[in-house]
Amino acid sequence: MKSLKEMSKTELLGLRQEWQKEYENFQKKGLTLDMSRGKPSVEQINLSMEMMDILNSQTNLVGEQGIDCRNYGLLDGIEEAKRLLAEINEVAVENLILYGNSSLSIMYDMISRSFSHGITGNTPWHKLEKVKFLCPVPGYDRHFLITEYFGIEMICVPMTEKGPDMDLIESLVEEDEEIKGIWCVPKYSNPQGITYSDETVIRFANLKPAAKDFRIYWDNAYSIHHLYEEKQDFLLEILKECKKAGNPDIVFKFCSTSKVTFPGSGVAALAASTANLNDIKKQLVIQTIGPDKVNQLRHARFFANVDDVKRHMMKHAEIIRPKFEAVLSILDEHLSGLDAGTWIKPRGGYFISFDALPGCAKAIVKKAKEAGVVLTPAGATYPYGKDPEDKNIRIAPTFPSLDEMVNAAELFSLCVKLVSVEKYIAS
Ligand SMILES: Cc1ncc(COP(=O)(O)O)c(C=O)c1O
Question: Quick one: which atom of ligand 1 is closest to the CA of 101?
Answer without folding.
Answer: 10
